[in-house]
Amino acid sequence: MNDVLTVRGLSVTVRETALVSDVDLTVGAGERVGLIGESGSGKSLTALSILGLLPEDVRAGGSVRLDGVDHELVGADERRMSRVRGRDIAMVFQEPMTALNPTMRIGDQIAETMLVHKTLSKPAARTAAADLLERVQLPAETLRAYPHQLSGGQRQRVVLALALANDPALLICDEPTTALDVTVQALVLDLIVRGVVDRSSALLFITHDLAVVATVCERVLVMYGGRVVEAGPVNEVFTRPRHRYTEGLLAASDLETTSRRLTTIPGNVPPAGRFPSGCVFRTRCAHATALCEETPAWSGSEAEGFACHHPAAQGSLEGVADA
Amino acid sequence: MPEHIPTVHDAETPTAIRVVDLVRDYPRPRTSLLQPAPVVHALRGVSLEVKQGERFGIVGESGCGKSTLLRLIAALDRATSGHVIVEDTDITRLPERRLRSLRENLQLVFQDPMSSLDPRMRVRDIIAEPLVVQGHPASGERVRELLEAVGLSADAGDRYPHQFSGGQRQRISIARALAPRPRILIADEPVSALDVSVRAQVLNLISDLVDELNLTLVFVSHDLSVVKHVCDRVAVMNAGQIVETGYTGDVYAAPQHPYTQRLVSAIPTLQRALSGATTADLLAKGEPA
């Protein structure tokens, strides 16, 4: 299996503040990888720096390579990036209203993506747009509709159709269903999975919802404080977490517990740039010692491993901080 | 999996909130000179009963009328027809000046703590405001007591809402709601805007306070798994009607109404996903509209 996306030592900084540090990430062809973390963990910034869409004073460092693109994506100029965006890498954002042009009909917007990249001629693009809408289960009349005439779920399906228009090698979804109702979320998730499976595209799926990641993805990376703290196959990470943060997150989201009280992680997620030095989780971790003031090294392989000085024992969920 | 035992309510337990055949229609702006203005039927005859000390959940998707129902129960809006009876008082047509006891006894916590807290007021003034409005002396001691009850330090009172994280702001909202010592607490999506690790803290806090202060809790959420953890009984709403009511464990395990079945099967859970459920399994037999 060849790697579609290879990210090495990615860092994102604004002036002196590091927001994302040292992220390594590989997504193979047809592979579905999840990126989970709470707000401020740097997961969206990671996605934006892959696409070269960071705000003006925010800088990315390190390396991002895409299979089939012969240049480095970090620091590439706008002219080269605009050829990659929408053709090789496509993105579905959280808020579908702001991702669509309110003054253009849906059909024209979908056709535009193919015309801009000259992948199809004008009449062929129109036919393809109708076909794409049918695949996301929207009626043919939607072609002539404007975004404001559609519901949130319908808009998100249009955004997905747009993203898949040029059969991208990599699809990035950033919290695509957070604003949607559960029954609509189910449909959109299914369409995303079917869309990437049909095209054997790679999927990078960003969310804070563990259950959604477990349903959609095969492999998962857990981010906290701008660092990847644990990575591995979904089944492995969610049943035998090694990093104390992953362990706490799993316990805190377990609403099936029989006790009235939920297990919690003490404290709050610090604001971006205020994470402690060394292990980013040490201020909230019950197992932290003086050793944690040093940044823990990555143990294991890139595809499966963790960065923790006091990892949970293999195959147990014991010792979860009950605060 | 053993369910937690729901609080048993016999027929003797007094009713805290009774809603009888409640209807709320909103007229929309006229679109034609010749035709009457179109009407949105937000609530189409909702009836429910919440016993004192009960934890009652209301679930439904956006647009199902759950917020309209809350507004009517809190007397923030007027019903088209039907009745809302809170602790033996029919509040449906009471004028505002006679709602004083309701304003004290029933308090709300909203979804977005940023927009429900005044950014220009210090936290101690925010928490004291319901007391001042009701004409009670707002002592610094009561404010400190409330801050402590929700797990914030006493010096938090001197700061402004923007200096707090989402979870802490929601604690401030809860402290404000508890200030006039209400008997009924209504929480409208109180944890939907929070991160998972903070969500558990706030859910525990609400649960503890409800127990300690013997509150009646009405908990509204779109997330059936959260409601299942917090509430004894639940009402499922769809298109302005209650389609199913029952003990949360029963409704979750064996939903009767087709809508509830679709809702339950659409919720992704870790357990199901780890035992091999895919996105196709989230879609029940009927496709959503």
TrEMBL record, chain A:
It is a peripheral membrane protein. Residues 5-250 form the ABC transporter domain. One of its GO terms (molecular function) is ATP binding. InterPro entries: AAA+_ATPase (IPR003593), ABC_Ni/Peptide_Import (IPR050388), ABC_transporter-like_ATP-bd (IPR003439), ABC_transporter-like_CS (IPR017871), Oligopep_ABC_C (IPR013563), P-loop_NTPase (IPR027417). The keyword Cell membrane applies. This is ABC transporter ATP-binding protein. GO terms for biological process: peptide transport. Keywords: ATP-binding, Cell membrane, Membrane, Nucleotide-binding, Transport. Its main location: membrane. One of its GO terms (cellular component) is plasma membrane. PROSITE patterns: ABC_TRANSPORTER_1 (PS00211), ABC_TRANSPORTER_2 (PS50893). Gene3D superfamilies: P-loop containing nucleotide triphosphate hydrolases. It is found in: Cell membrane. It comes from Kribbella soli.
From TrEMBL, chain B:
GO terms for biological process: transmembrane transport. Keywords: ATP-binding, Nucleotide-binding, Transport. Residues 17-264 form the ABC transporter domain. Pfam families: ABC_tran. GO terms for molecular function: ATP binding; ATP hydrolysis activity. The keyword ATP-binding applies. InterPro entries: AAA+_ATPase, ABC_transp_ATP-bind, ABC_transporter-like_ATP-bd, ABC_transporter-like_CS, P-loop_NTPase. PROSITE patterns: ABC_TRANSPORTER_1, ABC_TRANSPORTER_2. Belongs to the ABC transporter superfamily. This is ABC transporter ATP-binding protein. It comes from Kribbella soli.
